[in-house]
Structure formats: structure tokens, C-alpha cells
Amino acid sequence: MGFILSSAWILPAGLLAVGCLIAIYILHKKSTIISVSSLMLWQDKGIPPESGKNISRILTPLLFFIELFILLLLIIAAADPLIRSSDSMSIVAVLDDSYSMLANNAAPRESAKKDLRNLLEEADNFKLRLIIAGKKPYIIDKPVRKIAELDKTLQNFWECRSPSTDINRALTLAGDIAGDTARILVLTDRKIERLSSKGQIEFWAYGTDYSNTAFINAGRKRIDGVDRCFTVISNFSDKIIETVLSVKTTDDSQTVLSKSIELGPLQKERITFTAPEGKTVKAEIEEDSLEIDNRILLVPDYEETIRLKIDFSSKSLKGAVSRAIDAIPGTKVTDVDPHIIFSDRHRQKVNKNTRNGWAVKFIEEKNPVSYIGPYILDRSHPITNGLSLKGVIWSRHRPAGAPGVPVIAAGNVPLIIDKKINSGLHEIIIYLNQRYSNLTESPNWPILFWNIVQWRRTAVSGMARSNVLIGMDAIFNVEGDVEKVVFINPDNEKNYLTVKDNSVSFNPSLPGIYQIEIKNKKYLIAANSMDSIESDLSKAESGKWGEWHLGSFFHWEYKGVAWLFLLFSLLLLAIHRYLTSPESKGDN
Amino acid sequence: MNREFSKYLQEGQQAGAQYAITIPNNLRTLSAGSYISSNAGSSLEFRDYRQYAPGDDLRHIDWNVYARSDTLTTKLYCEEVVPHVDIIIDGSASMNLNGSGKGRATLGLAALLAQSARNCGLTHSAWLAGNICEKITNSTEYPALWDGIDFSGKIGCELSLKSSHPVWRPGGIRVLISDLFWMGDPLNTLNIIGEKASSVCVIQLLANADANPDLSGNTRLKDCETGDLKEMLINAESREKYISNLNKHKQNWAHSCRQVGAKTATVIAERVLENWELDELIMNRMVYPV
Questions:
Q1: For the segment A428-440, what is each residue's pLDDT rounded down to a tens digit?
Q2: Are B221 and A44 in contact (CB < 8 Å)?
Q3: In angstroms, rounded to a whole number, what is the distance separating the alpha carbons of residues B267 and B15?
């Protein structure tokens, strides 16, 4: 980048001019020759006969080449030549952190590192800001100013395990920190379509369209007491491939499944199997260009049994509630540390073991008024999922006013209220006069209890899904008064996460098993690399695109040297004038 | 020979009917011969005495002198000659420049001079100074009968004369018709031509294009004799330079001619061909109208 032509578009026009000059000389050569009696009197000095034949022809090619050089110098001057005057370089590098950069033993990433190092070595001093462009791009705070720092920083931060990359968002960040004076360099493995940035951005891609077979989806769910698993394997090549799917438990390497699979070009296949209860399994296919998507881990979904306490004075209401609860799997009626207490008693005895219990209170009032609708449901509230109160008669005393947020109301008469107490505890009040209502006989009754239980389930410690994708934010619920949880990553590094709003969040960046410990209880989470776009290496490309060659944008780094070319052309013009003047000694 | 050349000779011969060549003063007309030579000869006109040498004609011994001095002396009488004109034509290619009347004028002028010599009762010969200087076939006859002329000389008139050593009749009139376009001292040529000549005339014959080149702009000039090419920008300045060089050259020749007592004149071919009016030759007393 030491010498550039900022208006290189002029060169074709200049070559046209050179062509015209050549054409003129060729045509001129063919032009009419005028015979004269003697050239003697056309020369300034006499040539003695002994000097031999006149060789004035030698001047023509010399003049042609002089004119050609003059023309070339003028063309280059018009193309605004610039040379680097400043050895300092300010760069913002956007690093594609997606896992496709690990193809073929991380060849794209390593090639990109090498070129970046070479680029920085050209400058005497530089300031490099790095943006790791994964699913959520972020900026590395400390700028890099030395080559030794570069290697270390890249090794620490550029891991390429993200399931995707958001280059556009990363470029927006880059634009913010680069301002108007820094160059932006994107290192990736694909061609990025982007509008012109007036020369500030350059894209360097190092991808190769390797064939790849990968897991693109997987899941595990406990259904009817059985751990059902599925995986989807995709062939991203245009050839038929054969591979072997091998599923084993991680603790004792017990084979769960071993199957040969043949996939046609661009074909996918879904395979289901049953995992041993409570055991983590690892599914693998044969190694190919990209290793990270050739294995997945599936941990059992942790589903805690929701403990329910039923305490009713009304037998009919108790019976109705019991029938609804019995239909809900994963629940247990107990007095010990219940998650939910269903009661119609206005005052409850607070058991020391009920410190985490939500209360669902039924209040039967005198002089009820029956409502047949229309009912107003807060559809954003979890307990209204799937409820349709058409045809339901709901009776309660018409209140003068009621505290809490109505979840279901008949007009301005709240029928169910949700009161958040503290530490995530809720008190749900259901106003219902059973005798004058048909709610308990309607299909909505069991649905209502199902929703309450599922809602409560989301608040117990754990995650809705135990198997997640890397790069995604994982939110883990923490119940009770817990300030910190122990967090162990797949490399067995132990950290503490602070609980906020009854949850902790983390972003798994490594594939593997994560552990969260709360009061000696361990919860396992498996993070896997699966993304059909990233695993499809057929779109990978190599090349360099950009407009850094438009040096005029970085004008502070360059200075113009057109004057030098003009000076040389003037010098040649003077020589040309001398040679073609009548007094020139070149006539001989 | 080119048929056109015969035509030109005929044309010149016809034009020559109205001219007579000027005879130099050192030749006088006598009855026995056309002219009295300055050499000793056998005419009736007494010239001088010399001492008797064995072999002398006894009829020429002056017995009166013997009677007075007892010394045998022989009378010398003037030689009677018929004056001769040698017309030397520059046979170089430039004398037949393409696109000009130079070739036609050269031959026409040579024929005219030959005829004008005949008109005075002089004999004539024509010589072509090409690559060698040689007598033109039938050149003693009427010009229309001359043959073997071509303008292909490459070496120039001076070199042709030097290398060939032509033998001309002593005491004759030598006329050179040339454009005089070669470098070197004119005296070299004049001395060869003027050796034992009674008079020398140098007629510089130029084409219009030689005297007043009508060229301009970027031009490629080719020397019609050597084939050399010269590219040059011809403008008013370069034309002035050319004219200046031409005038200097003419002056050089005029000066040299004066030195050796030769006559010189410059004629333009196209003007000569217009109506065969030879004002320049008349002014320089080379010919006169009859």
C-alpha cells in the first residue's frame, strides 16, 4: 500500500491516448514522402561526402519513445498518485467468530491471523481495535499496539465457537469506534454483500467450500416417564455420503445407538432414540472438515415434581380442585414444603416448610352475582393460556373494590387476581361461588390448574430446557433467597454467578456440559454447536474485496506526488523540444 | 533511352534555332579555319620565330634572317581550328526530379546549346556525368539523334568527372548543366572542366521546388539520389534557412567561377520550359538571340 493511484479509473482513458499516439506514428510512417533534389540545403551544417550516408532516421523512434513516456507520465499524474507519508495505521478489525472459521483445522482463522499480522507489521506503529463478531458482537476494550499483544489477544478471544455471526451489527459497532479516520477490516470466510463505504471497509475472506456433514438439531424430553431424544443430521455436500451415528452414555460409555446412515446430496435425516433415564448421552458422527458440529451432548431435562398442598373447608371445592390436580403430571400432593397451597381458608397456618409456597386462595362470598360474560382475560398472564370462558357462569359478590391485578374479570369485576408478594412469591385469589357457577364443570377448570402448576414450575430452580445452543443467552431460575450460585464450565473452571431477580444468566461459549450448583444441588446444562447456515461450508469463499485502494479516503496517510510526474514530463518535453528544434545537433 | 527524352531533345533543338552560342574573345574568325587558335599551327598568319630544330619544315625557314645572321630560324604560324563545344550534362538523379520539369529542361537546354553552337558553325559533343562521365551516343549529331541518356547517377557530378578523366578537345567551350547540389569546393569541378578550355559556362538548372520549396508542416523529405529520409517540421523559419543556404551555395559557386574566369547563371526549369526565353543566359553572355 506504499503507492496507490486514487483515480485509477483514468488509466483506461490514458491507454486509449497511448493507442492514439502509436496509431499516429504508424499512419505517419505510411504518409507521403516528398522527393527533393538534395537534403543538402535542408541541413544546417555541411556534410562532407566522406561522412557516408545520412542517418537522420534514428531520431524518429527516439522522439516516439520520448512522447510515449511524456504521455505515460501525464496519465499517471492525472490518476492522482499517492505515496504513504504516515507510517501510523489505525484499524478496527471485525473477526468472524462463527464456528465455520474452524473448518479444516481452523485454516480460515489461522490464515486470517497471519494476514492481519503481516498487515500490521507493514506499519511502524499501529492501533488496533478488535470486535469479536459472534451472535452478539462485542468490542475488546483494550486496543492492541504491538504484534506480541496481538497474538495473545487473538488466542484468548477469537475462539470461533459461535453458531452464527452478525457482521452487519459488528460493522455498526466498528463504524462507531472507527470514526472517520480508522480503517475497518473484516476477517471472515464468506463474501459479505455490503454497500460501498467510500473506501473505509475491506473484506478478507478465507473460506473454502468443503463438504460437511453435521448435526443441525437435537433435543431431549421426558415423556410418559421415558427420555425421548432426536437428532437431525444434514449432508451439505453435493455428493452421497455415508456416516455412522454413534450414541453413548458419557459416564460408562454404554452404547445407546450405533447406526450407519447414508445421505444423498443436501439431504437431511431425523433419527430418534431413547436415552437411559437420568443419563447424559453423547451422539457423534464421523469426522470431516468441521469437527465442532459432529458431536452433541444431551442431558436429561430436569423436571422437578411440583408439590401441592390442598387445604379446603369446602368439601365440594376440595373435590373439584383435587380432580383437576390429579390430571396434572409431575405433581405431588404433600404438606411438606409445597410449591403451591390451594385453600379456601382466609388465614393459613404458615408451615415453616412453606416458605417458597405460592398461595391460590378461593373466596366464596355471600350474595353472589352471576356473570355469563363477556369476560376480560389478561392474555399475557400465564394462567390464561388456552382459556375460553364462553358459556361459563361465574358468580361472585359484586365488590366495591379489590386489591391486586385482575387476571380475569367480568367487566370491572375482578374474578381472579394475582398479587406478587415478595421474592417471586405470588398469591392468586379466585373469587368463586361454586354453587352458582359452572366453572368447575367446564373444561376451563382443569386448564386453569394446569396453567397455574406450569407457571409455578417455571419459577422453580432450573431451566425450561437443559439442552441449549452455544452463543445463546441461557437464563437459569433460582428460587428462594439465594445470592450466588456456583457455575462450572466444560473446562471445569469454577465461578460464581450473582442471582438477580431470581435468575442468573450466562452465555455458553464452549460446547460441553455446564453445571450450576445451588445449595449442593447440581443442575446440568448441555451446550451444543448446531446451525445449518454455519455448517453449510459450500457458501464459504476466499478473496479480498474492498476499497482501501481508494487512497483518497485515507488522505491523511498519503501525500500526492503528481507534481513529481509532471516535473519529469516537463523535463522530457524540454528534451523533445531540443531535439526537434532546427538548431538541434540531432539532425545529423 | 526513354522516348520522352528524345522528345525533350527535339524540343530543345527546335528552341535552339533562335539562339547562337557566344564565342569567347580569345578565338578569331579566319578563312582557312573557323577560328585561330592561340597555339602554333599551319595557317598563313605569321606568329613568331624560333631556332631551327632538326625536322622542322624547310619551307618555314626564314632565309632572310639566315642571310643576315647565319642562324637558322623557323617561322611559326597560327594554328587553324574549328571551335568545339562540349556540353556536360549532370546525369545524377536529381536532374530528373519527379514532379518537376527539371529533366525536360536539362535535356532541352543541352539540345538548345548544341543547336546554338551549330548555328555558329561550331561542332559539339555532349557528355553525361552519371556514375561515369561518358560521351553521349550521337552527341556530335543533331540533338534529336542523341541516345543512351538516363539520370541514374548516384555519385555526383564532381566524383563522376574525377573518376572518369574525360578527354575534351583543347581550346573548346565547356558548358556544364547541373543543379550543383553537392558539397565540396566548386573549384575542384571547375578545374577539371576548365582544363585547356577556352571558356567555361556553368548553368545551374533548378526546379521550382528547388528554388522555392512550397512545403509546410511535418514533412518527410527523401533525397532522390541517396534515398535518405529526413523528417522535419517545415515552417517559415526553416524555409528561410533553406533559401539562405541555397543563396550561399550559389554565391560560393559564383565566386569560384569568377576565380577561374567561368561564366555562371541560374535558370529555373519550369520558367525555361514556358517559352524558352533564356534571359539569364543572355545576360551572362552565354548565348545570344539570332
A1: 999 999 999 999 9
A2: no
A3: 16
